[in-house]
Amino acid sequence: MKANTYKTVVEEAPKKKRPSVLDKWNKKFLRWKFISQDEEEENSQYIQKIVFVTFLGILYIANSFQAEKSHLRINRLEKSVEKMRVEYSTLKYDFINESKRSQIENKAKNLGLVPLENAPVVISIPKLEDQ
Fold this sequence. Notes:
Blueprint: H1 21-31, H2 42-98, H3 101-110
């Protein structure tokens, strides 16, 4: 029988972690003065605030452009709705006017039809239960 032995473990060298894109950007930002957390530097104190105010200004300008564009679109749609309302009213009036009995009789005369002089004859059928 063979004696028990320990397996020797070969230690691998730790793999170097490949730097990600974010790590590269973090290193670049840390070199800039406005990212620095050191409050003793004069530039560091004000550049952060200037960047923030500039960002707010850009947002304000973008918002005003968007509001103006929406306002113009609303005005265009209001004009379109007014035109459609007028067209609807005109068509409704024409339809009501054309469906009057006198108008229908005039159109029927042109086709050679005349209205009845006396009432139509009603034909009654006795119910099957009455027989």
